[in-house]
């Protein structure tokens, strides 16, 4: 994709945050946007850097993560196409509290803070749409925290596989393949598990003939049995 010819107003128009804007408003917002091409492993921002913009993934995938004082990485969120991040922090006048890195060759749209403030001043309803988007994101993060606190490691892994199945359901009674978008270590960190425990759970599920593992491809042999196994 040619970044120089990327149609920013058209992309903004299909985003929930911007899809009620007029063509003139979309063009104004687009003037405060920049499209960036990222290679796998590129840093988007680091903890402590000033936050003067928020970001939307056009294609590819981004990892949001924290680093412990001991140097251990904890994946907070994996952000895919059409999803945004850092919009809430942008309004706090505080620096980034996480790190962001591209996990694959990606296109990223950055939206300038001042552009957002200008549109909010023009139409206060714009801020309501922004709050709604932030609220949905917060609800998802709270759900993830609850899952981590209340569910066993086995249940978290099964839940992840079932959510991937529900997001892209195949034909009824068919074997469904979940292709891990990132390394097993990254998925494990996202689920607050060690890579060793994550692999142990997968191999237990394979031994029970609930899944079949082929590198990053995990075939769910029986969705119903897999869901029931998670509650025992």
How does this model look, in words?
The protein is α+β, with helices and mostly antiparallel strands. It has 2 domains: 147 residues, Jelly Rolls (Sandwich), CATH 2.60.120.10; 79 residues, Winged helix-like DNA-binding domain superfamily/Winged helix DNA-binding domain (Arc Repressor Mutant, subunit A, Orthogonal Bundle), CATH 1.10.10. Helix 7 packs across helix 8. The model has no long low-confidence stretch (mean pLDDT 83). It is elongated. Strand 10 and strand 11 form a beta hairpin.
Secondary-structure map:
Layout: H1 8-13, H2 23-31, E1 33-38, E2 43-45, E3 53-59, E4 62-67, E5 73-79, E6 84-85, H3 87-90, E7 99-102, E8 106-112, H4 113-122, H5 125-150, H6 153-167, E9 176-179, H7 184-190, H8 195-207, E10 211-214, E11 217-220, H9 223-229
Antiparallel strand pairs: 1-8, 2-7, 3-6, 3-8, 4-5, 4-7, 9-11, 10-11
Descriptive terms for the model:
elongated; alpha+beta; Jelly Rolls; 232 residues; Arc Repressor Mutant, subunit A; 23% strand; single chain; 11 strands
Structural class: alpha+beta
Radius of gyration: 20 Å
Tell me the domain tally.
Answer: 2
Largest sheet: 4 strands, antiparallel
Strand arrangement across the biggest beta sheet? 1-8-3-6
Low-confidence stretches: none
Kindly estimate the percentage of residues that lie in beta strands according to DSSP. 15-25%
CATH class of the largest domain: Mainly Beta
Brief summary of the model shown:
This protein is of the alpha+beta class and 232 residues long. The protein has helices spanning 8-13, 23-31, 87-90, 113-122, 125-150, 153-167, 184-190, 195-207, 223-229, and strands at residues 33-38, 43-45, 53-59, 62-67, 73-79, 84-85, 99-102, 106-112, 176-179, 211-214, 217-220.
